Amino acid sequence: MANRVIIVGGGGGGAILANLLQPHGFDVTVIDKSTSHFFQPGNLWIAFKGVSPEKFLRPIPSLLKKGVNYVNDEVVSVDLNERRVTTRSGRSYEYDFVVLASGAELDYSAVPGHRELLERFGDFYSSPENSLKLWNTLRGLKEGSFVIGVADPIYKCPPGPHKGAFLASELLRSRGLAGKVKVVLAVPVPHAYPSKTVADILEPELKERGVEIHTFFTVNEVDNRENRLVSLEGEDIKFNVAVVVPPHRGPSYNISPAEVKDQSSYVKIDKYTSNVQGFDDAYAIGDCTNAPTSKSGVTAHLQAEVVAARLLGYDARYSGRTNCPIITDGKGTFVISDYDHPPIKVRLSRFKRLMEDLFVATYWSAVKYPEFWSPIFKAYFDATDEFIRRGEGW
Amino acid sequence: MPEITVDARGMACPGPISALTRAYRNAQNGDIIIVLATDPGFKPDVQAWIEKTRNELVSLTEEGGVIKAVIKVTAKK
């Protein structure tokens, strides 16, 4: 009998893994409570460029190869000892291997006033619907300040708030509001970006566009009556419109034994193999894990390849490689690092912006046909890994 | 008084200061937070954090490559 693989989550990591395994005779089932897969960076385009959400949405089954089973149901528990996944509808699935790829969960109730803020303005972070709401909110903003804040140092897509600030300033400039609406970026860390090396590249660019930067500002409360964000560190910022990246946590479904989750509910894994700690037949990939690397699509993608290779019998390991794109209004750069090397200095260029735009254009194909795209990505990663090892950029 | 130890050894910048921020969120005035870090950037970062938050830096020492910051929480509202 073919090995039964249950994948919890049909986002980038889960779908790529399913499509890598299916041709090799595995009995693969993807379970997701959603019927749609949305390309998360697309939220920025919806919120700041008015692009239609449909462009970034696909039905999950359309992204899975023929032969992959898809179940539209919500997972409520995973029993690692009994090798069983149970869903909201009461169904139970036994497996030979399980892979948790359900992403991080966003907690809008952790910060007082945050949910109300989201309902007032939308955001560019959580969903296409909320991004569309922000696009409509920003249409009505003619003066004052647009503030982007962060409520916890650990969040997915570390450059997300910065991309938002660049695209917001571009949007306001295009509407002739550059001197009338101020863009403010507030971050929990000591520099404009978590990595000092990357902050040194971004900060002059942000300042050049008039973006006001607040460091050591961890949003702790949203005062919707006074329209101000209050930080854990004791500062406050007034806003006309604000977006706050919420605290994140790991999966809310039960996993037994409970010890495989950390204090924030992230699944504890071996950072190289993606094995859930203590289980050689269970893996977790992407944003739902406690791996000490960026919560980003590239991590989910590379971990999916590692898990696929391991299930095929190879001793593959994930290096912790990141390649997170940062875009300004015309240029791009990447946050390139791995477990053993901090981010290197990668200069902004129009070419790297083109690379990012090309990647966006190929995303759906890369998810469905990873066997075609992986060698191309691998060639790029191999070439740039040399730069990481030498501690220099390109 | 409660003592919270944050072991951020092996974490690269800004891991230690991020770990401190997360511990600070759950702390109360009077608590002691001890942060252990190996990233050299932690020293100036924690000094800047103290200046910003107006908490008390009881001591900042380094021994065998491990930086130890002892912080008394005094400024939480």
UniProtKB/TrEMBL annotation, chain A:
The record ties this protein, via Pfam families, to: Pyr_redox_2 (PF07992)
Describe the location of the FAD/NAD(P)-binding domain by residue ranges. Answer: 4-120, 176-295
Q: Which InterPro entries does the entry link to?
A: FAD/NAD-bd_sf, FAD/NAD-binding_dom, SQRD
Q: Which GO terms describe its molecular function?
A: oxidoreductase activity
Gene3D superfamilies, per database record = FAD/NAD(P)-binding domain
Which superkingdom?
Archaea
PANTHER family recorded: FAD-DEPENDENT PYRIDINE NUCLEOTIDE-DISULPHIDE OXIDOREDUCTASE (PTHR43755:SF1), PTHR43755
- Protein name, please? NAD(P)/FAD-dependent oxidoreductase
UniProtKB/TrEMBL annotation, chain B:
Q: Does the keyword DNA damage apply?
A: no
Q: Does the keyword ATP-binding apply?
A: no
Which keywords describe this protein according to UniProt?
Transferase
Write out the GO MF terms.
transferase activity
Which residues are in the UPF0033 domain? 4-72
Which InterPro entries does this entry report, sorted A to Z? TusA-like, TusA-like_sf
A Pfam family the protein falls into: TusA
Q: Which family does it belong to?
A: Belongs to the sulfur carrier protein TusA family.
Record protein name field:
Sulfurtransferase TusA family protein
Q: Which organism is it from?
A: Infirmifilum lucidum
Lineage, broadest ranks: Archaea, Thermoproteota, Thermoprotei, Thermofilales, Thermofilaceae
